[in-house]
Amino acid sequence: MKKLESSLTNMVLVLTGVAVIMGGILAYVNSLTEGPIAQQKEKALADGIKSVVVCDDVVVASVDTVKQNDAKGKELTFIIYNVRDMQGKDLGAAIESTTGGFGGNLKVLVGFDTEGKILGYTLLEHTETPGLGAKADKWFQKGEKGDIIGKSPAEPLIVSKDGGQVDAITASTITSRAFLLAVNNAYKAYKATPATDGETGATKQY
Predict the structure, then answer these.
(1) d(Cα 183, Cα 101) in Å, to the nearest integer?
(2) From CA 174, how far away is CA 176, in angstroms rounded?
(3) What is the rounded average pLDDT for all residues in the chain?
(4) How many CB atoms lie within 10 A of CB 150?
(5) Distance separating alpha carbons of residues 74 and 1, to the nearest angstrom
(6) How do residues 1-18 score in pLDDT, each as one tens digit?
(7) How confident is the model over 152-193, as pLDDT tens digits?
(8) Across-strand partners of 122?
(9) How far, in Å, CA of 176 to CA of 135, rounded?
(10) Under a CB-based contact definition with an 8 Å cutoff, are residues 120 and 149 in contact?
(11) 3 state DSSP class of 15
(12) N or C, which terminus of the chain has less Cβ within 10 Å?
């Protein structure tokens, strides 16, 4: 077989061929992993909802999307999962809320009872510093130093350094402020949820 001449044209052709082949391989791998990744995310959300409403057998009765502007005029989107127990009793809702933390976006799932008191929370996404801001997943839980469980953000939750009632994570005041802002915003979105709106198809059992 005659060896290809080392020319610009041949180099471009070879590189183009390699790029096309690699693109095809990546597309194939993506098609294989897309389904499992989606299932994994749905399971993580389902487990998160159970955790934040403190109930193993819950039904998502409806899903609402609420858009609100923050203090700087930026539009925020909240996803609200209205939940019931297996007997049909309203338990409240689990709300996805995102704010900017120290290292990037901080996405929180917060559970509220029907009166607006915090049942629980979990971090869905964060890029906070390990050992510092990342402690938010435990710091504000029941019995911990920054415990917010059972409180109502009707009066906004604020770190004690800013004159509020919640102890900030040690050496991570920025993350603590971002976390509490996400919780406060989630509460506002919950209270702004239309009584009859959103996605009301077949209920999902978790």
Answers:
(1) 13
(2) 5
(3) 83
(4) 11
(5) 63
(6) 555 555 667 777 778 888
(7) 999 999 999 999 999 999 888 989 999 999 999 999 999 987
(8) 109
(9) 10
(10) yes
(11) helix
(12) N
